[in-house]
Write a structure and sequence with these properties.
mainly alpha; 5 helices; 0% strand
Length: 78
Amino acid sequence: MIRGITRWFEQKAFGVCAWLGKKLGIRTTTVRMYFIYLSFFTFGSPVIVYFILAFLLEHKNYFRLFYTKKRPSVWDIE
């Protein structure tokens, strides 16, 4: 029962905790627990941060399109 709920949540939760845990080098469950604890102590403000990160992760290809310029390689001589 609990594993089914966990699996459903992991598929539907945008992967923010997994991405953040991978970037910080810590387990995903630890990141989730911190989000839960901080949400209780700060009356839900980390949920706003979570949704902002989810939006950025879902649309990261669009942001890369506008902000990163591909530098020419040494082998691309015209």
